[in-house]
């Protein structure tokens, strides 16, 4: 997931410009087709193969603030223990960009009955706000009965976003 900056919906721009109804309908059709294509790609990438114990789900959740819309992108990965392994691995990576906070990325991993979380904030001021609340977050997680291995926050955005594993590719080149 990559943090997406907030944008003004093009429909509102067209309405403010008093665009013809035909142009509004064309824009709505284009946006609907684009949204459906994104859902289809997310669904296709979630298909698992029998060879791989890893399942991946991608999702986007829109957040509306007045006339503006922000997106939170999620990547959820579940790996089942194979063969004699019974341990499961879950990870959730998400990203968003809010004007008030800047770009934020987080990765939460649940493995061997303990949880680890790393947050990255593009802005130093946002990282400081998060760091000031980490102990409270740790206590809340533990209060829910989970063991916390680590909860950290770093300033900056990781340069290498989590890439899908080779098993999670959309197109297989093997014949």
Question: Over the alpha carbons, how many angstroms does the gyration radius reach?
Answer: 20 Å
Q: Return the string of H and E elements.
A: HHEEEEEHE
Structural class: alpha+beta
Number of extended strands:
6
Determine the strand fraction and express it as a percent band.
25-35%
C-alpha geometry = flat
Helix content: 25-40%
Weakly predicted, low-confidence segments: 161-175
Outline the structure in words.
With 175 residues, the protein is of the alpha+beta class. Helices cover 30% and strands 35% of the residues. The protein has a six-stranded mixed beta sheet with strand order 1-2-3-4-5-6. A hairpin with a 2-residue loop joins strand 1 and strand 2. Helix 1 packs antiparallel against helix 2. The longest helix is centred in the N-terminal third of the chain and has 25 residues. The radius of gyration is 20 Å and the shape is flat. The two termini are 30 Å apart. The C terminus is likely disordered.
Task: Lay out the secondary structure.
Blueprint: H1 10-16, H2 21-45, E1 54-65, E2 68-79, E3 89-98, E4 102-111, E5 114-121, H3 124-143, E6 147-155
Parallel strand pairs: 5-6
Antiparallel strand pairs: 1-2, 2-3, 3-4, 4-5
């Amino acid at each position: 997931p990559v943090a997406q900056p907030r944008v003004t919906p093009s429909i509102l721009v067209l309405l403010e410009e008093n665009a013809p109804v035909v142009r509004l309908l064309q824009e709505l059709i284009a946006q609907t087709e684009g949204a459906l294509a994104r859902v289809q790609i997310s669904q296709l990438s979630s298909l698992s193969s029998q060879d791989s114990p890893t399942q991946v789900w991608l999702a986007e959740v829109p957040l509306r603030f007045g006339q503006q819309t922000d997106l939170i992108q999620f990547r959820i990965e579940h790996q089942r223990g194979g063969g004699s392994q019974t341990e499961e691995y879950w990870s959730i990576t998400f990203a968003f960009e809010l004007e008030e906070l800047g770009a934020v990325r987080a990765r939460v991993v649940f493995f061997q009955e303990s949880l680890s979380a790393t947050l990255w904030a593009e802005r130093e001021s946002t990282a400081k706000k998060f760091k000031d609340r980490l102990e409270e977050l740790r206590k809340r997680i533990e209060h829910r009965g989970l063991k916390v291995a680590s909860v950290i926050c770093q300033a900056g955005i990781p340069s290498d976003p989590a890439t899908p594993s080779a098993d999670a590719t959309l197109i297989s080149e093997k014949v």
